[in-house]
Inverse folding.
């Protein structure tokens, strides 16, 4: 049913925004400093949560330096013959980039709405 990558992206954006909204509501109930007084506060906190996660997960094409200097991984590579660790490294980088890009795109609707609300008021 969700064969199209666009449908999958829209579904992921919806789920990410829903989870971020729930997180912000719970956070605003627990911490008085995060109290939501305006819709723009709510959208701002949602975008911060979503883009914060994007920043933590998105390598963005930069080499992961821990992969090559990890002593345990180095010993494992020497012990296992015939396995292509470079493919694993590339797969990991692609997954991180894809997740970061999805999270970045998921924050765009909130950012656009926030900009529209701030220009109207």
């Amino acid at each position: 049913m969700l064969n199209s990558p666009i449908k999958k992206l829209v579904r992921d954006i919806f789920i990410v925004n829903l989870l971020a909204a729930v997180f912000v509501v719970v956070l605003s109930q627990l911490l008085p400093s995060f109290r939501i007084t305006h819709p723009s506060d709510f959208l701002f906190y949602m975008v911060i949560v979503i883009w914060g996660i994007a920043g933590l997960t998105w390598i963005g094409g930069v080499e992961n330096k821990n992969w090559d200097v990890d002593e345990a991984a180095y010993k494992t590579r020497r012990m296992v013959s015939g396995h292509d660790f470079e493919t694993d490294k590339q797969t990991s980088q692609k997954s991180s980039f894809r997740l970061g890009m999805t999270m970045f795109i998921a924050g765009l609707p909130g950012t656009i709405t926030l900009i529209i609300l701030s220009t109207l008021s």
